[in-house]
Amino acid sequence: MRYVTVNLLLLWILIGCADPNLERPVIEDLGMVGVMGFDYVDEESVKVSVTVPQPAQDAQEQVQRFTTVVDSPHQAIMDISTLTEKTLTPAQLRVLLFSEEYARKVGLWSVLQNLYRDPQVGSNIFIAVVKGTVEEVLTGTYKDKPEINIYLTELLTPRTMTAFSPFTNLHSFINRKTDEVSDPSTPYLEKMDEDSIKLTKVALFKEDKMVNSIEPEEAKLIEAMKGKKKLPDMTIKVPSADGKEEELLIMKFVNTNVNVTANGDLNNPEIFIHLYVRGSIIDYNGTRYLASQDNRTIVEEHASKYFEGKVISAIRHFQDIGVDPVGIGDYFRLKNARGWSKEKWIETFKRAEITTHVETRIVSTGTIR
Predict the structure, then answer these.
(1) Fewest CB within a 10 Å sphere: which of 272, 327, 328, 346?
(2) 93 and 41: one domain?
(3) How far apart are alpha carbons 3 and 103 in whole angstroms?
(4) Cβ burial 228-258 (10 Å sphere, 16+ → b, else e)
(5) Shared domain check, 326 and 312
(6) pTM of the model
(7) Above pLDDT 90, what percent of the chain?
């Protein structure tokens, strides 16, 4: 009985003397990681960079930046925690950045899978690929911009003028990678100078590895084929009235509508894409009098051919590299559920006969003549 009493007394002393901050740090002791980035080192290791906002108003720097070389993202959190007075947590993680080299050589799956299973990490974290290294992007000064965590979050938040981007988050990337039809895509960022970062392209993935990219003009039409109604303004090239040179016009999209027809035959696949575009001309450097219905009709026909060329070029590019970011395979899976696989679909997609028709309607020319 005496030994039981002594043991209980010792247990009470140990519990009573435990430091509550070791068990559950108070909010002031936490360092909220806002951005986490990954640069290629080799097949086993990765250079991880993180940014941590400084809440103290008298802090000399708004953001702390840390870099370490580790084998997993959570290992980076533990390692960097020894470099700062804060206990780092990914609970407020908002952006994941991957260098193009890392995305091409290693792929995103291992990192994303590890983070996805962590209950502290949300599924709405934005994902993007960067040109060069992530470390270089995160160490920029970016004068007259918000601190880097807010700057990148706002840059990757969907807006009308950058609606060509898929604005991929953690959940949607994993969903696209694991489904049996489509492939992921992400925004592609470039550091333009010490003062700005620009969303320049869309990165294309096969499974979880980046294989190529597409320019914004094609990416806008790809988003239309995914069903997006509102697109950013687009520059269109049309032949001049005398046919000797090209004219430029900028169209503001009012709305778009897409209809895809597929025969469902995996042996002789045929796909027809009909895209309907309504928009207003907001800028034009040509000589045609656009108040004339005849001239508007001519411009509409040229614009339709221009769009058709962009759509076919993008789709054939997807066929060549074996990816389906649009999700066209859904139109075949409905009729071929038995024995279906993504690999089988991609082989079918590569040899599919694809035709398209774009119907353009100019609903307004404003004060342009």
Answers:
(1) 272
(2) yes
(3) 61
(4) beebbebebebeeeeeeeebebebbbbebeb
(5) yes
(6) 0.86
(7) 46
Q: Which of 227, 226, 225, 176 is nearest to 205 (CA)?
A: 176
Strand order in the sheet with 35-40: 63-70, 46-53, 35-40, 95-99, 126-130, 185-193, 196-206, 209-214
19 lies in some domain:
no
**pLDDT confidence bin for 91, thresholds 50/70/90:** confident
- From residue 146, alpha-carbon distances to 52, 135, 157, 270, 313 in Å are 14, 18, 14, 49, 38
Instruction: Find tokens 């400084």 and name the residue.
Output: 54
Residues 53 and 188 in one domain: yes
Say which amino acid occupies 224.
A
Q: Does residue 200 share a domain with residue 155?
A: yes
The answer to whether residue 365 is domain-embedded is yes
Does the residue 110 lie in any domain? yes
Report strand pairing: 185-193 vs 196-206. Answer: antiparallel
Same domain membership, residue 230 and residue 102: no
Q: Is residue 333 part of a domain?
A: yes
* 99/278 Cα distance (integer angstroms): 38
Beta carbons within 10 angstroms of residue 357's beta carbon: 14
46 and 195, same domain (yes or no): yes
Q: Is 313 exposed, middle or buried (0-12, 13-18, 19+ CB in 10 A)?
A: middle
Q: What are phi and psi of 49, to 5 degrees?
A: -115, 135
Beta carbons of 135 and 47 less than 8 angstroms apart: yes
Beta bridge partners of 70: 46
Q: What is the pLDDT of residues 101-155, one digit of tens each?
A: 999 999 999 899 988 888 888 888 999 999 999 999 999 888 888 899 999 999 9
Q: Specify whether 39 is located in the same domain as 51.
A: yes
Q: Provide the domain limits for residue 80.
A: 24-214
pLDDT in the model for residue 95: 96
214-257 tens-digit pLDDT: 988 888 888 888 888 878 888 888 998 887 888 999 988 888 89
